[in-house]
Amino acid sequence: MAGIGIDAPGTTELLIGNEAIARGALEAGIGFAAAYPGTPSTEIMESLASVAKKMNFYAEWSVNEKVALESAAGASFAGIRAIAAMKQNGVSVASDFLANIVMSGIGAGLVLVCCDDPSAISSSNEQDTRNIAKWLDIPLLEPGTFQEAKDMTKWAFDLAEELDTICIIRSVTRIAHARGNVKLGELPRKEHKAHFDNICPVAPTLTKFIPYPSAWLHQQLHVKLDKAREVFESSPFNWYTGPEEAELLIITCGSCWLYSLEAVKTLNLENKVGILKLGTIWPLPQKLIEKHLSKSPKILVVEEIDPFLEGSIKEMIADLPPASPHPTFYGKHSGHINAYGELNPNMVIGATARIMDITYESRPAEYSKKAAEIPFTYMPLRIMTFCPGCPHRATFWAIKNALRLDGRDGFVTGDIGCYSMAIGPAGFFQERTMYCMGAGAGVANGLGKLAQFGFNQPVLAVCGDSTFFHATIPALINGVYNHSNFTLVILDNSATAMTGFQPHPGTGITAMGETTRVVDIEDLCHSLGVQVDVCDPFDLENATATLLKMIAENGGPRVVIMRRECELVRARREKKPLYKVHVDPDKCLGEACGCNRLCTSAFSCPGLIWDKDAGKAKIDEVICAGCGICADICPQEAIIKEAV
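User: That's the sequence. What structure does it adopt?
Assistant: Structure tokens below.
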């Protein structure tokens, strides 16, 4: 991230897409940045926060995405350019405020950057945010290159001020996290001066900002959208390459432009296929698109994830005069392009070849045949798992044992986070629901009110410490208010670990590295009148007993805080393991143990391996974090931990 704040106009830096977006915000002269960490958007705020003090602007990790957008809007109202960044799930969280801010207008430039995650690589869904922009009538831009990510972000602030509305930049994983050359522009020299004009909303002097939505403002919003369409007609982020008369026209956007370009070049169709690349996605530049529709009787729309462009262009054509071009469309509806998941060059090549009736093989048929004959067992099986030394593994081990001892078929409701891997073998298949942040406790609220229907299964809701602040507190309050019977287990590892260990209100540090007051989870829960116990998950005996006691209770919600710092955070600070761990081969009975190799087949820490030749368990010293928890689960006491 060293290149983000370099004051060297005209030089070229190798940046990931998120860094390029951050640089564009700097060149636009932002004074305020807010975000909640979420892959693939996280590095935008990390980049900005790293230079915030040096460049005299404010940056924060907000408690959730809605608050991040509201905070950024507050700065905008006072005349400070502001940016909010989040992943696609976060836009859903922020949508309530977003639906209103678009009606009221803004002060200084206000930009929302959303990074979508096609194929849900690190998400619970692959929501296409473009639909929200269309739904709410918000101007939407999408970069197709790293240079464009920087330039488009800078331009978006000017556009927001010209239109008097928030603007959205939509990126995707392969732009956000890939890397390319970016030519830097100038950094502004002006000082930020904030002032909120305290004008009566109904006064005749009011010309711009109205701090509340109304029906009249909805009408004005459509006027703004029409103006945006006019601006987009001549935008430098839209362009066409190819012949004047083409056999096929590809209309595309974002990273799919690169895939389309590669497809045309690979198939040697530069003289037969044209590409219309759009960077202004909503509202569509209607005249520009209409002009290019006449180039070919066939249109292939290449986009991720939903058929957004495809459907919107078809809607546009339906309003054109009968004599206008009405080409044949290919894309997601025709089955030529997947209506889900990520695209890649090979998919676009295949679709283009089919339409152009070209035979194309990505690799020789003989090679494909041999590859298909290779047994699956030759490939190493890699499952998603917790890191070595992760306290969550111990927590779910304790949960599994407590529920088994209770004997009433209890189960766990959860949400997205490191602990969402507990739906699989990493967490012993304990988590049975996994939706959005805070949903574990929300779902438990409903389950905890079903006693009148004969329901008596214990319900454990799990959330992380960052998730607790983000979205679980309202669900816990709801449980207190409605006297819902469930146990909330807060996995407090003192970091937003899944996205890169960003701080949160419970860590005592801000995004800019300043020490701040710790919001104590235990105290907050006590203030609600909730019974709270705090456990170290590595103390398996006490953790299991505490959980067993809590789930036996009836009445309103109870809270168990499993508090143990993330091992990666601790190791980075202390630079040494807690214990030196090894297996005593004389005590390890291997397959004859009677435990069905509990350590390597059930507990399955990556630091534990099975030595087939010796028929014994073994510690992988390269991977082992030295937490020593495996020593507590071995029935033969064959795993030895020695203090370092």
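Residues 391-573 form a domain with the Rossmann fold fold (CATH 3.40.50.970).
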